[in-house]
Amino acid sequence: MVEVFKTNVQASEQADELISLLQQAFPGNKINFDLDDCDKVLRIEGRNFVSCNVVTVLKERGFMCNVLE
């Protein structure tokens, strides 16, 4: 399963920190940001994650995060 999220993450340092947190919360998934995209896309590929929990992780750290449809 692949899920794509729109975020407001701006800096690569922020993205790296969030990737580390997400990998701890959802191990075994491929996780990356595309900060060059206008939607500052977060992409997660794998089987063991729940989209609403991903949104919660980012929002708890002060970032906007919504599933892109």
TrEMBL record:
Domain of life: Bacteria
Protein name: HMA domain-containing protein
Provenance organism: Panacibacter ginsenosidivorans
